[in-house]
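Changelog-adjacent note: as of this version, every example in the card shows the full chain rather than a window. The one below runs 187 residues end to end.
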Amino acid sequence: MASRILLHICCGPCAIAPVLRLQEAGYSVTGLYYNPNIQPAMEYLRRRDALAQLAAILDFEVIYDDYDPLPHLRRSVADPEHRCLPCWRERMARAAATAAERGCDAFSSTLLYSRYQDHEAIKGLGTAMAADGGPDFYYQDFRVFWDEGVELSKKWQIYRQPYCGCVLSELSRYAKKLRRPPVVEAS
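Full-length structure tokens:
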């Protein structure tokens, strides 16, 4: 019987390479879509639906957890400069707890695929949570498979989001455009 791993998943495109690598390594993958950081709600739904599309392609189960962005939003607005670590901690803690509840051997996160996240901080959180006596934390630097994930997401026409997820990351992403004057098209 294959080892069972719970993979926290932030979005479909970021899950492609990690799920493929875990399946190739013999793991039975269960995804956890828990992302109260994603705003607005329509963006959350687009990412959720893209993940469902991917799960059908790669044939793995996904748990769709509750969505309540208000606590995350309050915390982020209160400390915008340090918003990411509590966000990662919350999602990794939910993954560790869900893995324990489900009897999984290990847990991990697609946050380890992103080139835009603090990889060492996320690795440290997962390692610390596993040290508390729950399932093992599975660490792999999935960033080396970035191009593969991008290519397959385009091939499979899986929605690719333009920012991390929270409204503050969206503001950061579009900061230069927001400072430019409006573009008026000639008629």
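Structural remarks: The mean pLDDT is 92.
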